[in-house]
Amino acid sequence: MGNSNTINRLPFNKPFIAGRELYNIAEAVLKNQHLSGDGNFTHLCQDWLVQHIGGVKAMLTHSCTGALEMSAILANITTGDEIILPSFTFVSTANAFVLRGGVPVFVDIRKDTLNIDEAKIEAAITSKTKAIVPVHYAGVPCAMNKIMEIARRHNLLVIEDAAQALLSSYEGKRLGAIGDLGCFSFHETKNIITGEGGALLINNPIFSERAEIIWEKGTNRKKFFRGEVDKYTWVDIGSSFLPSELTAAFLAAQFERAHEIIAKRKRLFMLYIDLLKGVVERIASPNTEEDVNGHLFYLITNSLDERHRLITWLADHGISSVFHYVPLHSSPAGRRLGRVSGDMRVTDEMGERLLRLPLFYEMTEQDVERVCSLVLQFYQKNNAKFKT
Predict the structure, then answer these.
(1) CB 217: neighbour CB atoms within 10 A?
(2) For residue 224, how far is the Cα from the chain centroid?
(3) Which of 31, 169, 244, 345 is deepest in the core (most CB within 10 A)?
(4) Residue 6: is its pLDDT beyond 70?
């Protein structure tokens, strides 16, 4: 019998080098001699995003949080303005707007996708509402046609939190390119990584010029270097949202292999579904009917206690599995700074039962088989009536 010191451990996530990342960084330093933001690699990455996702302009940011904060400024969020979003999301989705004085209005999620329930959005709208922020959880698309239709009728902005959704699609359109603005993440836990990093996609051209100013600390630097103005000066609010050229150099190499990386993740994702199909009535998995990007694979356990026992069982066998968000509406800051629209039954339930299994680029099919075998063993061991 092995012990915990000899078990071959499988992490939940593992950052990776896909190809020319280190070569690009050396080129930025030694050849281009440009380390601060907005250099050749930044432009390459921004062009890639427009070409492969859409929009009229893409702007790299230091994080998806930065992209969301830029969105809040572009939306002119001020004290008391309300923003409709799911509670089952990362804190940045709400915090970016709270920093401008906005009030997050939390709406329940759908049980099948864990995305905001579009049927409950309209009831949350008031005279103070300025924007809807759909979050494409696990790279699975929200019901964007309905959300865009509601936004048009009520004259609201739509800001897509596509942090997990790079190269996922909805009815032939890339996520992040459907709303007025789209926000992406390249954090090391995402499909395409830079360690920390993000991007803002401008889909509504009315935001294009001001986004450049906000991105460059509130100055007209971009116009100055294009020769459009004769002075480089402070003209608006903004911050240092652009990333280092070293980050962009790393990202450019990842973009070169992006479709290959995501195809590999999707194969692992579909293998999970195939191997666990015997527990499909007990354990839910993301909807695979849309063109999703294989960002993560989750199980819905039957209870909080079962989730804890399954995490422990997997850990004892060298497998790292993790739950996800504590719903924002139940957090100390969420209760203080936001409000709830309607009941949050599904959000509360899923927050206690969801469990994410390992899924990363360098993972093998044998790794997936090992994880699935242990999951099946757990349910066979704990429920004599369970049949695979």
Answers:
(1) 15
(2) 34
(3) 244
(4) no
